[in-house]
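Figure-free illustration: sequence to structure, shown twice.
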Amino acid sequence: MLVVAAPAVALTPCGNCGSDEVRMRARGSAGSRRTAQVVCARCSSYSELCVGAYAEDQAARSWERKPHVVPAPPAARVVRGRVPMPEPTLVRDPLELIARMLVGGSFREPSEGRSTMPPLAAADIAGAVGMMRDSVAKQAVLAVALRGQGVSLSSLGRSLARRVMRQIQWQRRFGAKPALRMDDPADRWRMRLVLQDAVNDLVWPEGKIAAQDAAKAAKMRKGDYLRVYGIAAATLRQALEDGRKEFSGRVFNR
């Protein structure tokens, strides 16, 4: 059950739009399973989803730490003989809808003029995700949209390993010296480390470490590490793009 609770301390205005319509949303009874999140009613900006007995206090501190973004004025183009027109708004990433499931509520798809289209609810988004056929693309989409929260990244790495191994075997078939041999247990262990690095860099790109340090941790030559990492990263990016297109097509029927 979703409850809009009155926080013990006054919440700061939204750093994204400046609105004072900021609410604390809490779920569950008091205890370790209680969750809380601060949400702006105007622009839907939100804090981290905090869990535990002190979820409200943690959510309030997370909201205060959010950077204050100053919105840039919309660019305008001048057409001869006409009033300056604002540039059309950018199309939002459909993966944002998955992240909105953590906040609750609904989302109305923007359209020109009057529209009778019903708003998108969390059940619609969850249904579109559940109907995705590519398991690797589905896991990559959820991992990126939810920033790894509630997603098994190790399962994504195992699913990705099969595709990366096929790429390495394909290169070996055409005469290239393989960077790793899958019949060697030590190389399989190195493969898992490289895949974990690729998945972590996709989900948390701000925490990427230097290739030299990563290769040293995997006990590999830097050149071999970069070859395997490049294959894994390219495969992940392709899976993410495929998942983005499939999810968008299922939720918007495009």
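We now fold a second protein in the same way, so the two outputs can be compared directly.
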Amino acid sequence: MLHAPMPEEFHLAILVSGTINWPLEDDSMKEEALANHNPDMESRRRFLRKCLSVPAVGITLNSLMEASHSKEVPQPPQNQSRWQIGCYTRPWDQYEYLFALDAIAKAGYEHVGLMTTKSFNGLIISHETTLETAHQIGEECRQRGLNPLSAYGGDIPVAASLEAGIEGLKRIIESCAAARVKNLMLGGVTDEKLHAPYYKAISECCDFASEKGIGLSIKPHGGTNSTGPQCRQIIELVNNPNFRLWYDPANILYYSDGQIDPVEDAPSVDGLVVGMSVKDYHHPKEVLLTPGTGQVDFLNVMKKLVSGGFRSGPLIVECLKVGEPETILEEARKALRFTESLTGQLG
């Protein structure tokens, strides 16, 4: 038996509370329902948004209620927007990574970046990670409705030998593939003696990563990759289309002691950017703050990057104001709203 589309009030009652309270006769009842919602219902709410975005013709009450109580793992959104806004685990790196994933999902994000955490080496994925562990990490993300877009895998053992560096990088790439991470972000080296072997190892692994469906990227991170022009030189040295730039406007300021404005630096990386760390800066040398509260002119940085060819892709919040878990969670929500507002101004 076919049923007519349910009114918006019916959608709202189920979406907020998970129970039927229909009709919601006036705005005050809607506001009361919203005020009494349970934050633990976030994953159900995301699931229902996906269900209710489809025309409601043919949807029965029983089938909708069964869907809301489904045991199936929530999946990342299929209709991704122009920009994929996510959050790295770094703001919660004093806790184990599952705590960070819970908080990121609770804050309303649908994308995640795997970075630092409380572990034996301070990382979620590294050249020491087993494939079984990497697979489980990816599953933990997806169980929370999070799509892992980026991972930082730490250093590769190129100081031991070029061969060790290549093997170490390949292990990180394989772990990213097992976790179904889209891009491996590399930090570069500060020791100039390791510059040549480090990027030789990367050049030897670019095609391997491409075969695994993993993009490789370098970010401005000090040493020989502190600025846009330096990063461009490195990318041209490696000379492989699977090795590109993950921009970090705060690091442009940080590693230049506040002397180089990322708005001025951004045009130097035209055509190279595949993602960005949404990270702010306050002089001197402070990046542990919520985006939009520091010195980075994000709107004009993004306008320059868009003009240079970065017209879609991941924008992942890297740092937030430090505090207790409740404070960090609220800052994560603020950062999400800020980044959504930012992308809304780009047209």
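Summary for the second example: Strands lie at 83-88, 111-114, 147-152, 183-186, 215-218, 243-247, 273-278, 313-317.
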